[in-house]
Amino acid sequence: MYVGGFRKLFDFEGYVIEKVVLTEELAQVNLRRDRRFNLTCPHCGAKMGKNRTSRQTARDLPLGPARKVILVYEAIQGRCSNCDSFATIRPPGIPEGGRATWRLMSLVSCCARFMPLSRISEILPVSTATAYRWDKKVLAQQLPEPNFDELEVLLIDEKSIGKHHDYVTVVLDGQTGELLHMAEGKKKKSLESFFDRLTDEQKSATEAAAMDRAGAYKQVVSEEIPEADIVFDKFHIIKNYHEVIDDVRRQEWRAASDENKEVVKGQRYNLLRNPENLTEEQNQELEELLQLNENINKVYVMKDQLRKLWGYVRPDRAERYLEYWAQLAKQSTLEPLEEFGSSLLECTEEVVNYFRHEITLGPLEGFNNLISRILHRACGYDDLEYMFLKLRRESLPKFLISSPQF
After folding, report:
1. Which residues contact 365 (CB under 8 A, 6 or more apart)?
2. Going by C-beta distance under 8 Å and a sequence separation of 6 or more, which residues neighbour residue 348?
3. What whole-number distance in Å separates Cα of residue 274 and Cα of residue 253?
4. 254 and 341 in one domain?
5. Fewer Cβ atoms within 10 Å of its own Cβ: the N or the C terminal residue of the chain?
6. How would DSSP label each residue in 196-263?
7. pLDDT tens profile 85-126
8. DSSP single-letter state for residue 110
């Protein structure tokens, strides 16, 4: 049949269309080597001699109603006398050992970004297992390796990724939001494996690392980059204080009479909200509670006082206020509040470092939400390397993602 109209669709350099067979379900395109093109060694660029030829097949993009498209092409094994090597020449865009064109695998990978792998077969004739393999291969080829040369700020946190509390340690570039590292677990070795990839010069260039107060990350950072400032995340500190309020509220509810329990009940979120976010009705309910219970009133007032800390600009003044607030907490006669005040005094420097660098784990918390969405879409991941590639793509600007060269 006449194949001129198909040349632009199957324009593979060095190959011409020999025959096209179309049915309602299948399209087969036979390609042969264009004799006008010499065989060129991919290693040294010299002219190669033909050693042997074989017919091979590769799947390609759907063509009209034909969802399955098969390319049948000449794979030519050549020998280069210049560098004494063998190479197999295929149509451009078909990787070595590949049973599909790069453009088909790229389309599958694009679909996998927005839908579960198990649903791709509704659009393209590929199985879930094939879609997984192709997506992982495309991502591994497309995504650049992390650049550690310009690291100044690190964001470090753990994220639960399983029903049985499986955790991963996540490291982001604090300036660009780029995902740099993901390792199983939340212990020292999970973070040490990241620093093992850095040179001494790259470590010395890092100025600060933000993290929460829990976990073993502080010790690792202190050992690996001792000159960098450790910054405890202010939002985690606020969250920790909310837990103090909750503890006191529960203690007071248990100790209250039946009548007063009704006043304490249901006030959790009124106590945690900032005053400007309360409705008039919520504000009235909260006022009734604070007038009724002295201890709850005490932790609520201290919450407002702690909030003032984050309004400071100079680190020295923030440090003095933090020490003043922590001493008040220690003198409160409320055990949860006393313990919290003591813990803040023990990490004063790490808290005050926030005012020196003004960094938080906010970007990483947003990235954790992305992790949750991707996990939900895929119903979980067993392959941590694949999960890292999926998440790394979302963290990179589009202009950094390139097409691979085969």
Report:
1. 157, 235
2. 319, 322, 323, 326
3. 22
4. yes
5. N
6. TTS-HHHHHH--EEEE-SSSSHHHHHHHH-TTSEEEE-HHHHHHHHHHHHHHHHHHHHHHS-HHHHHH
7. 888 888 999 988 778 999 999 999 999 988 899 999 998 989
8. H
Condensed to tens digits (0 to 9), the pLDDT of residues 1-21 reads: 455 567 888 888 889 888 888
Range of the structural domain that residue 315 is part of: 234-357
HSE-CB of 256 using CA atoms within 13 angstroms: 20
Number of domains in the chain: 4
What tokens does 360 get? 């938080």
Q: Are 170 and 157 in contact (CB under 8 A)?
A: yes
* DSSP-H helix ranges across 61-172: 102-114, 128-142
Residue 62: pLDDT above 50? yes
Label the pairing between strands 153-160 and 208-211.
parallel
User: Mapping DSSP to helix (H, G, I), strand (E, B) and coil, where does residue 316 land?
Assistant: helix
Distance CA 346, CA 342 (A): 6
22 and 33 both lie in a single domain = yes
Residue predicted with more confidence, 217 or 257: 217
Residue 11 resides in a domain: yes
Residues 344-364 pLDDT 10s: 999 999 999 999 999 999 888
Rounded mean pLDDT, 255-277: 85
Residue type, 157: D
pLDDT above 70 coverage of the chain, percent: 95
In a domain, 402, yes or no: no
Residue pair 91/14 in contact (Cβ under 8 Å)? The answer is yes
Is the domain of 264 the same as that of 347?
yes
The answer on 378 and 278 residing in a single domain is no
